[in-house]
Write a structure and sequence with these properties.
The chain has 487 residues and is α+β, with helices and mostly antiparallel strands. The protein has helices at 6-13, 41-51, 82-85, 97-108, 145-155, 180-207, 221-232, 273-283, 287-305, 349-368, 374-379, 387-399, 469-486, and strands at 2-3, 22-30, 60-63, 73-76, 86-90, 119-125, 132-139, 264-272, 314-321, 335-342, 409-414, 422-423, 426-434, 443-450, 453-461.
Length: 487
């Protein structure tokens, strides 16, 4: 048994039918390199069965603690049935990208069944040019971006011939899951540990209240954090060089910052990583700076066309992995976030890039000055018994018009493989990361590098943005414009 951390449990707590806690990915394959030129659900079941011992989260299901006395546990499912999780469907002709995006949006909008391990895999046939799509869903409570990539690496190979897989250890049948009485006992025994964890996290959390999203706007929180930091470093030079003393931008309210519905819209596309690298080399910036600049330009175009462009920059939440080398393969969540004011208010492309570079540099400095465990520490102060209700109330308040949004948009850039990959012998052509939106933050732009390309996926709430494709078009146009200016 493995207990969820308070941060893991947060992704379960937000779910209410509209807010969903899973993340997804859409991979496009060329089956012509696979045996018999096909990629089917049966083939995927065979791959998964062979490698299941390398994929522990695929066998875990939740065991709740009665009365919510403590966070749930992961237990191995004794009734695990791989055929429940692997499904197959087909698009009608012509099987184009918009049909595929519509199907993905429907699948992405459905909550995972907590009576089973929290993942699903769909083999999507009928794509144009004989391609096959693989759409995967897995709950964020079990994996973050890095551990999700580790799972993906287990399923993929460096050549169509595959690779040698170590045999499964002779563990026999999984133990019977604990009964309600045992879980109740665990919950009662865990109460003193909860208090110890809160006391241990208290000094770090109070000293960095002004770095916690949403908390820094509470009256008195920044002052208390500054006083605590100064007391803690008496006689020592400031570790952060004063960066944490700088005021952060207040996010303006946009169409993306209301409550979300139960429905999603998805768009995806590819930009040239080669072009992005040429721009960063010509301007002395980074790949991430260029990605953020292109996203800012696309958002500027989108909002300007609606007559809703704010005079101040939007604020993006940029996830950051804090997973150490020793924590690889442990799954769960080891993440933090950076708040970055992205230059949507700047018209000139090169000045926009310079401003994005400076904003990212400043955000990284602030991020390095706070403990890696801050998000985990902050979530420990909510008792498990009211964790779900408190999480949903917080999201609801952030989406109300009377409140200042915590962020406007999520932008995430995840490094992927620079070399070709294969699954069941089929060559991977594209890999679009389809992430989550929530109340108050109904737009997510995630990009994954693969070979010489950047694969973008845009997820929006259907009621806020009925069509996500104009944003994808704006991303392509923004890169072309920036490339022309930088050359």
């Amino acid at each position: 048994m493995r207990q969820l951390t308070s941060l893991d449990a947060q992704f379960l707590a937000i779910e209410n039918g509209r807010n969903l806690g899973h993340v997804s990915g859409l991979s496009i394959y060329d089956p012509s390199t696979a045996p018999d030129g096909v990629l089917t659900a049966d083939r995927m079941c065979a791959v998964l069965t062979e490698r299941l011992h390398l994929l522990p989260p695929f066998r875990w299901r939740l065991a709740e603690v009665p009365l919510g006395l403590d966070h749930p546990y992961w237990v191995e499912d004794p009734e695990f049935d791989i055929e429940y999780h692997v499904r197959e469907l087909a698009l009608p002709r012509p099987g184009d990208e918009r049909q595929l995006a519509e199907q993905v949006a429907r699948l992405h909008s459905r909550q995972l069944d907590r009576a089973h391990p929290l993942w699903e895999l769909y083999v999507i046939q009928g794509l144009s040019d004989g391609r096959v799509g693989i759409f995967t869903k897995i709950h964020h409570a079990a994996v973050d971006g890095v551990s999700g990539a580790e799972i993906l690496s287990v399923l993929q190979d460096p050549s169509p011939e595959g690779r040698e897989i170590p045999p499964a250890p002779p563990n026999g049948l999984p133990p019977a899951p604990p009964g309600q009485l045992e879980m109740l006992q665990r919950g009662i025994l865990g109460i003193p540990r909860q208090q110890l964890r809160m006391l241990n996290a208290l000094p770090r959390t109070v000293a960095h209240l002004d770095a916690i999203p949403g908390v820094q706007d509470i009256p008195g929180a920044p002052t208390l954090a500054k006083i605590t930091r100064r007391l803690g470093r008496l006689g020592r030079p400031p570790r952060d060089g004063g960066m944490l003393e700088l005021p952060r931008s207040k996010p303006p309210r946009t169409v993306f910052n209301g409550p979300v519905s139960a429905h999603r819209r998805v768009a995806f596309g590819t930009l040239s990583l080669t072009t992005v690298k040429e721009i960063k080399n010509a301007t002395g910036t980074t790949v991430n700076d260029v990605v953020v600049t292109v996203c800012a330009a696309a958002l500027r175009t989108f909002l300007e066309q609606r007559g809703e462009l704010p005079d101040v920059p939007l604020v993006a939440m940029i996830p950051v992995s804090v997973r150490t080398a020793e924590e690889r393969g442990t799954f769960g969540n080891r993440v933090s976030t950076m708040a970055v004011a992205i230059p949507t208010d700047v018209a000139d492309p090169l000045q926009r890039l310079r401003d994005a570079h400076e904003a990212m540099r400043s955000a990284k400095e602030r991020h390095r000055a706070v403990p890696a465990s801050l998000m985990q520490d902050a979530t420990r102060f909510v008792p498990p018994a009211i964790h779900a209700r408190a999480s949903r109330v917080t999201l609801r308040l952030s989406a109300r018009n009377v409140a200042t949004p915590v962020f406007n948009v999520v932008i995430s850039n995840v490094p992927g493989s620079p070399t070709p990959l294969y699954c069941a012998g089929a060559r991977l052509l594209a890999n679009y990361p389809v992430s989550a939106v929530t109340d108050g933050m109904g737009l997510n732009i995630t990009v994954l590098s693969y070979e010489d390309r950047l694969d973008f996926a845009i997820v929006t709430d259907r009621e806020q943005v009925p069509d996500a494709w104009p944003l994808m078009d704006a991303l392509s146009n923004a890169l072309e414009e920036l490339s022309a200016c930088a050359s």
